[in-house]
Amino acid sequence: MPFKLNILSQRSIFENIGRSTIDLFQGWGAAFILLGKIALSLRYILRNFSQVLTQMMFFGVSSLPVVLFSAVFTGMVAGVQAAYQMQGLVPPIWLGAGISRAVLIELGPVLTALVVAGRVGAGIAAELGTMKVTEQIDALETMAIDPVAYLYMPRFVAGAVMAPVLTVFANFVALIGGWLVAVLSVGISSQMYLDGLRFHFHTRDLVGGIVKSVFFGIIIATSGCFHGSTTEGGAEGVGKATTNSVVTSAVLILIFDYIISAWIFR
User: What is the spatial distance between Cα 229 and Cα 150, in angstroms, rounded to a whole number?
Assistant: First the structure.
């Protein structure tokens, strides 16, 4: 009898593993199918341009204060860390170069994307999830309105367009934060800091960070749309969809950060 129970328990473990694996692949498959539908619906962008502008305001303009606030302290932290690590090793002129490279390549795009994922990605999932559980999306279909072109595609375009814009603003403000630390805390002159930025600036650093941000914006929008469109179970389901959207976005941002960095900066 104990042997039989042991076999049954092992079987249930493998069944749970298999079920979880199947659910994982089904979820990724559904996400890629949704991404393909969104790509096909881009031909209707002019028809739904008002929705695109609305989502760009929500994704970009509404997120600007929190992004800039985070960017200032990101640059200040980068300045403190760079000054500490370079102390006694390299001339002070390299401080500006170290801060600019850290901000343009990594800190600016990644931290901006994570902040936006927590704000915008959660908002997209909650909004679409509420529409899903209250059958508003089904109502759109009954009125012959394609929910992909009307709801998902504008958010996708807004993410792809506004994430690089937010990153550019964040980079600029972060460099100002680094300048404040360099001048007020480290004690180097503004001219020396600016010389470090100018002499060691590479276009690849700026372009690479912006390319990253395009992918990050697509990830945030697609994750929010997918989890919102698959919401079930009322208010509890909306809460789970919001959480899953933010977690998925954060994990994929870090994964694609490595992939794109290895591709551009190798």
Answer: 13
pTM above 0.85, yes or no: yes
Angle of the 234-264 helix axis to the 203-229 helix axis, nearest 10: 160
Query: Tens place of pLDDT for every residue, the chain, 266 residues?
Result: 554 445 545 567 767 777 777 877 777 788 888 888 888 888 888 888 899 999 999 988 889 999 999 999 988 988 888 887 777 676 777 787 888 888 888 888 999 999 999 989 999 999 998 888 888 888 888 888 888 888 899 999 999 999 999 999 999 999 999 888 888 877 787 888 888 788 777 888 888 899 999 999 999 999 999 998 888 877 888 888 899 999 999 999 999 999 998 888 77
Rounded-to-integer distance, Cα 217 and Cα 213, Å: 6
Distance CA 107, CA 114 (A): 10
CB 115 within 8 Å of CB 219: no
Max Cα-Cα span within the chain = 82
The 8-class DSSP code of residue 93 comes to T
Residue spans of the domains in the chain: they are: 2-264
